[in-house]
Design a protein that fits this description.
This protein is an alpha/beta fold and 232 residues long. The protein has a single domain, classed as 3-Layer(aba) Sandwich (Rossmann fold), CATH 3.40.50. The protein has a 7-stranded mixed beta sheet, sandwiched between helices. The longest helix is centred in the first third of the chain and has 14 residues. The N and C termini lie far apart (45 Å). The chain binds S-adenosylmethionine.
Length: 232
């Protein structure tokens, strides 16, 4: 079994139900090489303290469901003095992020190639300067509401992990997800929505890179929203 397959089986073992795709198109040789050789070098290690994994103590951010990794790699490039953890169970997306990291020679990202919920216990109180949930799967049907990523348990965990004054960024183009993301975060006492006027959530903040799903939405003429919250 290849190393990346071993790394990605934990979700199945934990009993947590993940509803998305773990595999897409067959991987090209380059992607396979990246998964076999580069992923073990930058995989998030549940058994090691964060400072050891990064070798330094700086602001640290978490991206949940990084997809193809454009946004995460963009942040890591723009903020070389910060460290990043990205979680994504879709192995083709993991390979894509690895390609971005290799091309950009980025060393400030650790990847968890599985369900983010499995690493939450390893992230301590106030251990993060912020977290990003960009264009999550919308699960618009009411009967699928329990599949939506931003459940009260995850929000509670994020409130614990993000230090006071830190940021929680939520973005989507889906009308139902706009409601449930906003409602979920606003319902939590520890997060304050920072928008003062519609422009603040209707436009991508200048320090946030584009994401693949954001571009898809743009091309299809769907308006995206960026909800920026601050941890009290
Ligand atoms: C609609 S895609 C958006 C990808 C990317 N953020 C973007 O904007 O292009 C949602 C992503 O969230 C990932 N995802 C869903 N549930 C997850 C979970 N429990 N932990 C980590 N990632 C998850 C999916 O695999 C998928 O790649």
């Amino acid at each position: 079994m290849a190393e990346h397959e071993a790394l990605s089986t934990d979700g199945a073992r934990s009993g947590l139900r993940f509803y998305g795709r773990r595999k897409g198109r067959p991987l090209r040789a380059l992607m396979k090489r990246l998964l076999d050789e580069k992923l073990p070098q930058c995989a998030f290690d549940l058994a090691r303290p964060l400072e050891d994994q990064f070798g330094r103590q700086v602001d640290r951010y978490l991206e949940i469901g990084f997809g193809g990794g454009e946004h995460l790699a963009g942040l890591a490039t723009a903020m070389p003095d910060c460290d990043f953890i990205g979680a994504e169970p879709f192995i083709n997306g993991v390979a894509s992020l690895l390609r971005h990291l290799e091309e950009g020679q980025l060393s400030n990202v650790r990847i968890w190639p599985d369900d983010v919920r499995l690493i939450l216990p390893a992230l301590g109180q106030a251990s993060l300067a912020g977290a990003f949930v960009m264009f999550p799967d919308p699960w618009p049907k009411k009967r699928h509401a329990d599949r939506r990523i931003l459940q009260p348990a995850l929000l509670g965990r994020l409130a614990m992990m993000i230090r006071p004054g830190g940021r929680l960024v939520l973005a989507t183009d889906d009308p139902t997800a706009k409601s449930w993301l906003l409602q979920a975060a606003m319902a939590h006492d520890d997060f304050i929505w920072t928008a003062r006027r519609p422009h603040d959530w209707r436009h991508r903040p200048s320090d946030l890179p584009e994401t693949r799903y954001m571009r898809k939405a743009d091309h299809a003429g769907r308006k995206s929203a960026w909800f920026l919250f601050q941890r009290r």
